[in-house]
Each structure stands twice: as C-alpha cells, then as structure tokens.
Amino acid sequence: RVSSDGKPPKFQPPPKPVIIDRKTQKEERRFLSPEFIPPRGRTDPLKYYMERKDMIQRRKVINIPEFYVGSVLAVTTADPCASDKSKRFVGICIQRGGKGLGATFVLRNVIEEQGVEICYELYSPRIQAIEVLKLEKRLDENLMYLRDALPEYSTFDVNMRPVPRMAHEEIPVNKLQVRMKPKPWSKRWERPKYNIKGIKFELPEHKMKAAQKWSQPWLEFDMLREYDTSKIEAKIRKELSEELEK
Amino acid sequence: MMPIWTKSGEKHAVTLLKVQDCHVLRYVSKEESGGKTAKLLVGGKNVSPFSKPESAHEIFKEAGVPRKQKVTTFNVTDDAIIKPGTPLYAAHFRPGQFVDVTAKTIGKGFQGVMKRWGFKGQPASHGQTKTHRRPGAISTNQAAKVYRGKKMPGKMGNIYRTSFGLKVWRINTKHDIIYVNGSVPGHTNCLVKVRDSKLPTYKDCNKNPPFPTFFADGDEELPEDLFDEEIFQFTDPSVTFS
C-alpha cells in the first residue's frame, strides 16, 4: 500500500502472542505441605484454624520450601553455644512427622564416619533458614532403613552446591535400591508392614517368603481406614493462597 | 494442645480452652448459701431446652438465657458481684495470670489395682500360679479387719480433678480462646471450669485484671490477640542469640 505522503508505511510489528501457560496454572496447586492436613479425629476444626493462622504467619517471615522425604536440605539454626551463634547442618530428609505447628523433619548425614540424625521442628523460631540443595523423591515415604544401609548412601558433602532445577519440572523420583549391612538390622525391613521398595534385599528366597507370613492383605480393603482428604485439601489450599497473597 | 515458643527459643506445650456462651445465672448471698463468701452461679455452653422438664428451666428463664449444659458455682467477694444475665468472655483473663482448671477426668471404667493405684503386681513367671496383677495382702493379722479406704479395684476416672497454677500465655478475643500452659484434665471438647489460682505463690500475681469482669459493650477496645511478654510472636524475625 502507499500512504498519502508517497513514503512506504511505517512498519507495524505484529501483536505479541499471549502465551497461556497451562502447565504453571496446574503446578501452582500441586504441593500442599503435609502438616496442614488435619488428622482424623473429633477435635474442633477451630483449633486447626488457629494453628494454620500461626503457621501462615511464620511462613510469611521465613521461606519454608517445598521438599519431600529423600531430598537433601541445609538448615541454619540459632545456637547459643556456637562461636558464630548459628549452626548449619546438611542432610537427607528421612522422615516428616507431626501435624500443625509441631511438624518435624529428620535430617541424616554421616560426618567423619559417625552417622548423625537431627530432628528439626519446621516452625521453631530458632531456625533461621532452610534451603533445599537437591529436590527429589524416593520410592518410600520413610527412609529410616538408611540406618542399616551401607554408610555411603547417607553421606552427603557438607559444602554441597544446590542442584539447579527448572522452574516447572516434574519432581524426579530416585529409584535407587539401597544395599544393606549384614543382618541384624534395627527393624525387620523385609516384613510387609513396612512396605519398603527402596532396598535391594540380598536375603535368601526362603527368608523373604517367611517374612510374607506377617502380611495383612485385608488392610488395603478396610473401608474404615480410608481418609479422603481431597475436599479438605482443596479448602486449605484456597485458604493458604488467599492468606499468603496478603 | 499446641506448642508455643518463648523469646529465648524454649518450647512449651499449651492447651486451648474455648469460652462458649458463658452467662452469669444467679447471685446467692453469703447468708443464703451459708458459706463464707457470696456465690455466683455461672452456666456454659447452650444446649437444647427440650430434653429437660420445665421446672429445670427456671434459673435460665430468670436470667433470660437459653438452657446451659453445665452450671457451676464460683465463690466471690462482695465487690465482684455481677448482675445475672451478663455474658462472660475470655478477656476476663489476661496473659501472665495463673489459673486453676477443673474438669471430669477421662473415664476408664472398672479397672484393676495395677492401673488404678499403681501397684506393682507379681512376677510373670518363676512359679506364680494365676497371680500376676492381683493386690496381694489387703491387711495385717493384728488389725483383724480391712481399713476403710483400702485401695482396691473399682471404677476409675470420670471424677472432678483440678490442675493448679497454670499460666495463661495468650488470649484470643475474637474467638474467645484461652491458651493455658501444660495439660488439663478431661477428654477433647469436654467442659472445663477455669478459676483464678488459689496457690499462695500466685496470690499477688494478677496485674490489673478486668474487675469484676470484661464487659463487651464497654469502652475498652482490645486487640484480637493478647500475648504474654515472653511469647515469641510469629510476626517477629527468627530468634538469634548474641
């Protein structure tokens, strides 16, 4: 086209495409920290509401990141006895317990050939920072069997650098099968009640069969043990997102 | 029960008590009751009026209040008398005060002597015939009788017991919740009586509490949460030692 001046028309760049990132919208709702979900019981929900208010207050001051059992964390706590008045501990999270303000997580590491486990309270005011060095999941929810595994599986470098992670990736599941020290173990991990998938059992066949004697196959069909948290979770997620935006 | 942290980083366990529809029902004067002080009847927690006969509703009708599940008496000095019908709130107590909490303990039913009184019982093996949790001897030869009050098996629990000298850490005026130190007798959601502490150490501890009680329609504007001085509030940054 020719404009009235005779010069070529000014270049109009095309409008920028609006990218609706459906993945981010889905990912925002994915993780809800397990200590927010109230346990089954006859307690007044008002008590859990008051606890959640305090938990949200604390989360506004300190960033408590998303992490799972099997991720490597570094925690800095205030300590009156240390020279710098603060202590940093790096370890793999082997257990997450407790509900509400008393939620805890246990970090394990092997320092100078001595296994060390420290149980931290998520909402304790002595914790100054929690960083996730490596975010990943394992095959089990409880890694207490690392106490009876070879020490190489529990050693993590104290000066480890955080492993970079893309913003909206799926959380990797480490399908590592751990080799154990010779028996006796602190617990009989081969028994079906622990339901452990992350150990490479090198026990003879007859021992594995004998352990199945303690299986309780009716438990998965027990309807009284079912606890459907989907609606409760949805409510709590909504409440959290509203409060944290304020 | 919930954890609570102080400014120095120590953790304490705390019980939450909710003040639910408490009203003063009646004033009984010293001469009428025959005691040393005047009494105030207080009722808590509204319940349906249909499960009791009309004769039981007299006290509540006089005060103009729906039927309450529990009615308790408080011994009260003459300058602390309140008009029947006034509602009582959690703000009646202040953080830093000390309090006694009374409630009915969890009922355990008919229990043996080892659980009820803490007897040691007998060994599990080495020839014991059918005797592992029995009381053993109940009296001596000379006495020729069993004394009154001898500890024996019987119904355990479901009786009123008091925890003394519990500190009040925090008060929520919006939901009427009192955060009281330590544990309290009774099961979850049971009815509980909270009273100013009678222990001699805490006689002069109350630093200007609302007297005779906290009136909601008064001029005093309280913030939603009242904290004790030593509590770590979650709006503050993390505790650091220097």
UniProtKB/TrEMBL annotation, chain A:
Cross-referenced SUPFAM superfamilies: Translation proteins SH3-like domain (SSF50104)
Domain of life: Eukaryota
Tagged with keyword Mitochondrion: yes
Keyword line: Mitochondrion, Ribonucleoprotein, Ribosomal protein, Transit peptide
Official protein name in the record: Large ribosomal subunit protein bL19m
PANTHER family named among the record's database cross-references: LARGE RIBOSOMAL SUBUNIT PROTEIN BL19M (PTHR15680:SF9), RIBOSOMAL PROTEIN L19 (PTHR15680)
Pfam families documented for this protein: Ribosomal_L19
Organism: Leiothrix lutea
From TrEMBL, chain B:
Stored Pfam families: Ribosomal_L3
Location in or out of the cell: Mitochondrion
GO biological process: translation
SUPFAM superfamilies linked: Translation proteins (SSF50447)
The keyword Mitochondrion is annotated on this UniProt entry: yes
Gene3D superfamilies to which the protein is assigned, alphabetical: Translation factors
Keyword check for Cell cycle: no
Keywords for this protein: Mitochondrion, Ribonucleoprotein, Ribosomal protein, Transit peptide
GO molecular function: structural constituent of ribosome
Gene Ontology cellular component terms for the protein in this record: mitochondrial large ribosomal subunit
Chief place where the protein resides: mitochondrion
NCBIfam families to which the protein is assigned, alphabetical: L3_bact
Assigned protein family: Belongs to the universal ribosomal protein uL3 family.
PANTHER family to which the protein is assigned, alphabetical: 50S RIBOSOMAL PROTEIN L3 (PTHR11229), LARGE RIBOSOMAL SUBUNIT PROTEIN UL3M (PTHR11229:SF8)
The name this protein goes by in its record: Large ribosomal subunit protein uL3m
Biological source species: Leiothrix lutea (Red-billed leiothrix)
